[in-house]
Design brief:
Elements lengths: L12 E6 L5 H9 L15 E2 L2 E2 L7 E4 L12 H11 L4 H15 L14 H14 L4 E5 L7 H18 L2 E5 L3 H4 L5 E6 L2 E6 L1 H7 L1 H6 L22 E10 L8 E9 L2 E6 L6 H8 L7 E6 L1 H4 L11 H5 L2 E4 L12 H11 L4 H14 L15 H14 L4 E5 L7 H16 L3 E5 L3 H6 L3 E4 L5
Parallel strand pairs: 1-6, 1-7, 4-5, 5-6, 11-15, 11-16, 13-14, 14-15
Antiparallel strand pairs: 2-3, 7-8, 9-10, 9-12
Length: 458
């Protein structure tokens, strides 16, 4: 982001929009004073809070990150909420009343000694919000706080933010691609682009008068959805992967969902849906051969196994590489290399592809997923949406026959969303079997997916 200039007055509620990679998250981190020094990047101009450089305005801004798990620090709810207050040196006698008031403000009605690991995704996001509220910042910064939440969790977090703002009068800056979630709460929209601020005004003025222009640039504009690919030309093919009466869990012997039976056919998209905590990601990891079933079995068809054991959990990493690819919910969990290009070369190199063929695959993916300008960048310096596209591209580079993707479209602007969905549709039509774990109902519709719903009651 360059040459951005704006002023936000006390009490304003601002929705910050822009294409993936436009600098939204970087700006929030700068306002929160957590960007680091010159050795971690370059900066020009000034970011001021109450006339003071943001890096020195300790405690005036509170930042809630996109990933709930990355913000949980301590093992118990009360201790976690108190952590920020303790860092600010607030007297102990004042901390615990603040903790209880913050939990009440965000609607998180759980005991102070409740283990943080026992909370759902929506509860963890409210926990992170409570930790910030307890510090009583004048500026509340939210970075896609509902990106991986189910619809009920989205409503919970937004209404918790509304209660906090109404009670405190704090200023809000929220980054979110899905505009309609926050429109009821904000009074101003700022749009970032390559030349800094490209639009600034009331939601009606920005999204109404300039909606078509912004949508073409990748901004999600209500009423102007991105294009969907054509429906599948044929019927699903043979079943490549089957789960029979499977129970899944991440702790040996402890199931988070039970009695699951499904088939994954070639030439089709299977969408695993359901509330946070229902076991969707765990089921995806089990289908991908990365977790053993607690009970039951997952078996590959002979055509997919191709002469090796039927159970994917028994396959080596090399055997999995060309058979089942997995894209984790958190991109950082599967980044291996120091450049974007090298990350895309991991799979093809392990398969022993000739250099020319490897280069052709990598170049094509870099262009199609708008990563070519970042080919030499360190993957950890990318935006959240760029990291997601990179991990999807890395899985595609090995061309597995089955592809399991956990929330593949989070953090995407409308343009990169459409490009990702188009690539998945091409893979489907070429005969690949795709499993997507998603809260994105638009993905389900766009890909004409077969739905396998978990209700969270197992």
């Amino acid at each position: 982001m360059q040459d951005a200039s704006f002023r936000i007055d006390p009490g304003e509620r601002v929705l910050l929009l822009g294409a993936s990679g436009s600098g939204k998250t970087t700006l929030l981190h700068g306002l929160a004073g957590v960007l680091g020094g010159d050795e971690e990047g370059e900066s020009e101009g000034a970011l001021l809070i109450d006339g003071v450089p943001a890096a020195r305005a300790r405690g005036r801004a509170g930042l809630v990150l996109q990933d709930p798990d990355s913000q949980v620090i301590l093992a118990r709810v009360g201790d976690d909420v108190a952590f920020g207050c303790e860092n600010l040196g607030i007297p102990r006698g004042e901390i615990w009343p603040r903790v209880e008031a913050a939990l009440d403000a965000v609607g998180l009605d759980v005991p102070l000694d409740r283990p943080t690991k026992a909370l759902s995704g929506g509860q963890k996001q409210r926990l992170a919000l409570a930790g910030v509220v307890a510090m009583r910042p004048g500026l509340l910064l939210l970075d896609e706080p509902t990106a991986n939440l189910d619809p009920a969790g989205v409503e919970e977090v937004r209404e918790a933010v509304r209660r906090v703002l109404d009670a405190t009068g704090s200023t809000l800056v929220v980054v979110e691609h899905r505009v309609q979630v926050w429109l009821p709460l904000v009074d101003r929209v700022i749009v970032l682009g390559q030349g800094g601020v490209v639009a600034d005004g009331s939601p009606a003025a920005v999204l109404g008068a300039r909606g078509a222009e912004l949508a073409a640039a990748g901004v999600w504009v209500p009423g102007l959805p991105p294009a969907h690919p054509a429906p599948p030309a044929g019927r699903p093919g043979e079943v490549l992967l089957r789960a029979d009466d499977v129970s899944v869990g991440r702790v040996r012997g402890v199931a988070v969902a039970a009695g699951l039976s499904l088939e994954v056919p070639a030439g089709a998209v299977t969408a695993i849906t359901g509330p946070n905590g229902a076991g969707k990601s765990t089921l995806g990891l089990t289908l991908a051969g990365l977790l053993p079933p607690v009970r039951g079995k997952v078996a590959a068809a002979a055509n997919l196994a191709d002469g090796i054991a039927a159970a994917p959990i028994d396959w080596t990493s090399r055997q999995l590489l060309s058979r089942i690819g997995m894209v984790f919910q958190e991109p950082e969990h599967q980044l291996l290399e120091t450049t974007v290009r090298a990350e895309l070369e991991v799979g093809p190199r392990a398969l022993g592809l000739a250099p020319d063929e490897m280069d052709a695959r990598v170049d094509d993916l870099l262009e199609r997923l708008r990563l070519a300008p970042l080919a030499r960048a360190n993957p950890y310096t990318l935006s959240g949406g760029e990291k997601r596209r990179l991990t999807v591209a890395a899985a595609l580079a090995s061309r597995p026959r089955v592809l399991v993707l956990d929330e593949p479209t989070f953090g995407q602007d409308a343009r990169t969303w459409a490009e990702l969905v188009a690539i998945l549709a091409e893979l489907r039509d070429a005969g690949s079997a795709i499993v997507t774990i998603t809260h994105d109902e638009e993905v389900v519709r766009a890909l004409h997916a077969r739905t396998f719903a978990l209700d969270g009651a197992s």
